[in-house]
């Protein structure tokens, strides 16, 4: 072994920390700089005056932040007579004011926030959000009272969108408008006697959750109406929709964690409306992500299990049931249209899906109407059945196609009789969904002759037209989808479809012609109200016709396909579909 002595270099130990005495302050409140006398002048001071003459950064930051608040005199001129006082607004200012204290040399030590402090900050932030919404609406140039505008949006939803998404309890939503007026104006509302700290309780915090949920749902509904309806049915829609959507998402952010931990029907419905608005704006991917969040909440609430509805308030149970089936349909539609994966299926749930369909009888969601709500719920259920049976067909087709892939010489030989029966029976159920439907839901001609509406009920007739357009287009679109999938997997003979490519193209062109007839017979407003989901179904049919036209060698078939494609392109361009612009450009080049 070496006799060299080991040497270790130890780090230098830090000595005791020097204590600095507080710097004396100048008369203006600024700290005295060492080496500079009170009367000396620095280059900075010579240009901008003494530090004592500089404006207080805290006050400057506060003034800057207050510039973003609405003009309270403007609000008062429209009947809003009382607002949060300065102390209330001060508690709601961002933490930037506290950060600015570092500039002045003062470092206040905040006291631990109590539950009441948290509640007050929450209430102040919500109030400022709603006042900012009012200011944004006034900035658009609309002078009508905001509660009048909101009531018109609710009227439009009930009159036109309820058949597609019966997710709103009208009485509760209209009560939220009154609550909104009270929050903005500072008038008395249900929780005003609980604001003082000595009377603060857990119930107060819980009620504040209900308030913010109702505000998020109300503004989401207004955004949905603005994005989905044409200007003829909602004059302010396109201008106010982004404003309402932004406010709704900000309101939801105020209680997001608590809302996720203890959700109710409005938690899912609000997020569903957000996704619809994104979809209508052409942001399909973002819409799918928001839809996924709503689906995960529904799964956590076990809404696929009928036992989860036991013991609930009747209206709450009804809304949860409706929104579950709405999500189920949206999930299947997203998978079929945009090649996304199924996220709502009993195999994913890990257990059987036992939830029942919404009942057409029982408690109603609307206050009054000139049409039968039960008929609209029946139409809603028919739409769910289309997607339920279509997903069954796709599932059994997938099982059969796996068997075909393993036997090239006799592709259909390995398919068991049970697999054949399951596939055929599910296809029959899909094609017969409308057989037992009420007459007014089977064709536009029978809508005009129906007795479901009262005399002069134009809104009720349009309601039924909207639902019939949705049902008929969905019916033929899903048949087209199954036919194409069948041809791709080599399973034509199982469903009685031709194996010859020309005859298969002819069969698909016949289904496309059925859809062309539907969109030609439907009132144009009914097509517009159905929005992007219907536009995308028409787009898929148009893409199929474009594919057939590009490879067809038969002259008669090519002329038929081009004629029908021209009609669909004209309708899509009139619908101003954001998601279909690429198809329109491609097809226009092909047909020219």
From TrEMBL:
SMART domains: Fungal_trans. It comes from the Eukaryota. GO terms for biological process: DNA-templated transcription. Residues 1-61, 77-110 are annotated as: Disordered. Residues 287-364 form the Xylanolytic transcriptional activator regulatory domain. Residues 91-102 have a biased composition (Low complexity). Pfam families: Fungal_trans (PF04082). Residues 38-49, 78-90 have a biased composition (Polar residues). Coiled coil: none annotated. Residues 11-21 have a biased composition (Basic residues). Keywords: Nucleus. One of its GO terms (molecular function) is DNA binding. InterPro entries: Carb_Metab_Trans_Reg, XnlR_reg_dom. This is Xylanolytic transcriptional activator regulatory domain-containing protein. It comes from Aureobasidium pullulans EXF-150.
């Amino acid at each position: 072994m070496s006799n060299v002595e080991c040497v270790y270099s130890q780090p230098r130990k830090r000595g005791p920390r020097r204590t600095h005495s507080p710097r004396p302050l100048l008369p203006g409140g600024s700290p005295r700089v060492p080496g500079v006398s009170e009367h000396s002048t620095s280059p900075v001071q010579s240009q901008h005056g003494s530090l004592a003459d500089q404006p207080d950064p805290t006050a400057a930051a506060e003034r800057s932040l207050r510039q973003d608040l609405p003009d309270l005199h403007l609000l008062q001129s429209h009947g809003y007579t009382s607002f949060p006082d300065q102390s209330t607004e001060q508690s709601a200012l961002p933490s930037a004011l506290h950060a600015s204290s570092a500039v002045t040399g003062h470092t206040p030590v905040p006291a631990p926030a109590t539950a009441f402090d948290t509640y007050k900050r929450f209430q102040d932030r919500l109030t400022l959000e709603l006042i900012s919404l009012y200011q944004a609406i006034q900035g658009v140039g609309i002078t009508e009272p905001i509660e009048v505008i909101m009531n018109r949006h609710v009227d439009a939803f009930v009159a036109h969108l309820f058949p597609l998404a019966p997710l709103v309890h009208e009485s509760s939503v209209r009560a939220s408008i009154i609550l909104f007026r009270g929050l903005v104006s500072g008038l008395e509302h249900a929780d005003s006697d609980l604001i003082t700290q000595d009377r603060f309780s857990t119930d107060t915090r819980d009620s504040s959750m209900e308030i913010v949920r109702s505000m998020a749902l109300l503004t989401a509904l207004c955004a949905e109406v603005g994005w989905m309806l044409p200007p003829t049915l909602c004059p302010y829609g396109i201008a106010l929709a982004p404003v309402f959507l932004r406010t709704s998402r900000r309101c939801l952010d105020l209680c997001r964690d608590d809302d996720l931990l203890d959700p109710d029907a409005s938690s899912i419905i609000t997020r569903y409306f957000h996704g619809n608005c994104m979809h209508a704006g052409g942001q399909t991917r973002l819409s799918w992500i928001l839809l996924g969040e709503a689906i995960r909440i529904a799964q956590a609430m076990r809404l696929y299990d009928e036992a989860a509805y036991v013991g609930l308030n009747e209206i709450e149970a009804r809304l949860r049931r409706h929104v579950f089936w709405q999500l189920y349909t949206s999930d299947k539609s997203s998978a079929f249209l945009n090649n996304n994966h199924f996220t709502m299926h009993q195999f994913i749930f890990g257990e059987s899906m036992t939830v029942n369909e919404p009942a057409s009888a029982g408690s109603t969601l609307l206050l009054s109407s000139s049409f039968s709500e039960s008929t609209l719920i029946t139409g809603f259920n028919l739409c769910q059945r289309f997607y339920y049976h279509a997903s069954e067909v796709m599932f059994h087709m997938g099982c059969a196609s796996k068997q075909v892939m393993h036997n090239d010489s006799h592709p259909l030989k390995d398919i068991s009789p049970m697999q054949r029966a399951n596939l055929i029976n599910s296809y029959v159920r899909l094609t017969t969904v409308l057989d037992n439907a009420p007459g007014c839901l089977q064709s536009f001609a029978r809508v005009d002759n129906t007795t479901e509406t009262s005399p002069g009920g134009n809104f009720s007739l349009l309601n039924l037209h909207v639902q019939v357009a949705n049902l008929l287009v969905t019916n033929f679109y899903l048949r087209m989808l199954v036919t194409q999938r069948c041809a791709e997997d080599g399973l034509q003979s199982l469903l009685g479809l031709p194996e010859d490519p020309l005859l298969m193209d002819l069969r698909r062109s016949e289904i496309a012609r059925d859809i062309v007839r539907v969109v030609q017979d439907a009132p144009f407003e009914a097509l517009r109200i159905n929005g992007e989901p219907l536009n995308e179904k028409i787009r898929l049919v148009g893409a199929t016709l474009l594919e057939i036209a590009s490879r067809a060698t038969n002259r008669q078939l090519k002329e038929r396909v081009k004629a029908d494609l021209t009609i669909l392109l004209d309708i899509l361009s009139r619908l101003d579909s954001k998601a279909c612009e690429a198809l329109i450009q491609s097809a226009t080049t092909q047909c020219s």
